[in-house]
Amino acid sequence: MEYLEIPKRTSGNRTYGLTSIIDLGTPIGDLKNILTDYHHLIDIAKIGIGSAYVTPNLKKKVDLYKGFDIKPYCGGTLFEKCYYQNKIPEYLSSLCDLGIEWIEVSNGTLNIPLQERLKIISQIKKDFHVMAEVGSKDSNQEMPISKWKGEIKLFLDAGCEYVITEGRDSGTSGIYEKNGDVKCDLISQLVEGIDSKKIIFEAPTPKHQMYFIKEIGANVNLGNVKLTDVLILEAQRCGLRSETFYLEDHECKLPL
């Protein structure tokens, strides 16, 4: 069914226009049914917070994602827990055993010094595809825009394939106000001089997703997407929802 003029979407093994979902305990049977229909709309799967450590049949879940050409990784909270307990070598070994090739380096809960994170990235980038996260889960902690931009650039220069902007699964911190509103000035300045194709904006609700689609374009990278919202998100990207109805290929207010 192809008769409408809609924004052209990236497809296949995408490098941008990514949809990164958050898995907070979806049973394997349910997950298999969902992926059978919607796997082509999903690029990355985060096994959220530190839940990978207590997920039953984790290896089967990882293999299921990989079987559908989706890249699984563990939430940054697990990385931070391992850092806090001096268990990073054990963590890396467990990822290898599981066949997980992507890793998130974050400091959303712990205040891990920037230079320490850069050092870790330099040590692991030869063995893993690295994503770094910028921003805090503490809604009371404000970061200057210059620091946001500086860290993103440093992480990309250090070899990270993508940088994730913190938004939590609730959309109430990091790039969002406590009430869930997007920090619009922050976003507009973040993409000045930075390739937004390398940024994954955490956008846990359709309202957040619509903002980024309208401001950056149909092929913006979005993270923390709920599995149940994957099809809705794709419809939004294609201008098939009222709020994105007039979206066209050339409409892109911010540089992509």
UniProtKB/TrEMBL annotation:
What keywords tag this UniProt record? Lyase
Gene3D superfamilies on file: Aldolase class I (3.20.20.70)
The name under which this protein is listed is Phosphosulfolactate synthase
Q: One Pfam family for this entry, by name? A: ComA
SUPFAM superfamilies, per the entry = (2r)-phospho-3-sulfolactate synthase ComA (SSF102110)
Provide the GO MF annotations for this entry: phosphosulfolactate synthase activity
Keyword field contains DNA damage: no
